[in-house]
Design goal:
This protein is mainly alpha-helical. The chain has one domain. The chain is built from 2 helices and no strands. The longest helix has 28 residues.
Length: 62
């Protein structure tokens, strides 16, 4: 159980890092103003965290 949690946390950190890098490239490519970028990052990060939490719950109770 502990190894699954540790593995999932490492996976989550990698996914969040990769998604944030892609979001930054999107902001640069689409020339999103600096004032709106925090809102874009926050929205994407919240949605990814919801997805990761739901997948963890599915793994935990499957």
């Amino acid at each position: 159980m502990v190894s699954v949690i540790g593995l999932f946390i490492a996976f989550t950190v990698f996914i969040i890092y990769a998604i944030n890098r892609m979001t930054n490239k999107l902001c640069v490519q689409k020339e999103i103003p600096n004032e709106r970028q925090p809102k874009v990052f926050r929205t994407i990060n919240i949605l990814i965290l919801i997805l990761l939490l739901s997948s963890y719950v599915e793994i935990l109770y499957a």
